[in-house]
Amino acid sequence: MSDPTQPPVDPTRNDPTSSQPAGPSVPPAYGTPAAPAYPSSPAPGIQAAPAYGQPAAYGQNPYGQQNAQDKYNVLAIISLVSAFFVSLVAVITGHMAMSQIKKTGEKGYGLALWGLILGYLGIVSGIIFVGIFIAILVSGAATSSSFNSL
């Protein structure tokens, strides 16, 4: 059974792999249409449309890319979140974020600043807490030794 979409086979031809017809080639009866002639400038008072490939208007990036200024710095977010758990991490990442924000122009300066403030407050309050804890232990040890002597 033969495929109806294939051209008929000529048994007198020696080259079965060639797809060219055995007879002389005849050019098609139709011609290629000419491109319509458009005026090079639009009518007066009408603005020409931008050509393909020109940058988008109003400072938008092509292909839906996000501007660097629209993106928050990840280290600034980490600094603020870690300020509630580990103050030293908040201080370190806050300084790193502020340095990156100055270079790249990303958002998040306020987040990094608050991460630094809360981180330093956490470190200071931790030092005060440890100082008070040691003072209580020392005073407790001094009073317990006086009770043992009775």
UniProtKB/TrEMBL annotation:
It comes from the Bacteria. InterPro entries: DUF4190. Coiled coil: none annotated. The chain crosses the membrane at residues 74-97, 109-142. Keywords: Membrane, Transmembrane, Transmembrane helix. Residues 1-42 are annotated as: Disordered. The keyword Transmembrane helix applies. Residues 28-42 have a biased composition (Low complexity). Residues 1-10 have a biased composition (Pro residues). This is DUF4190 domain-containing protein. It comes from Cryobacterium luteum.
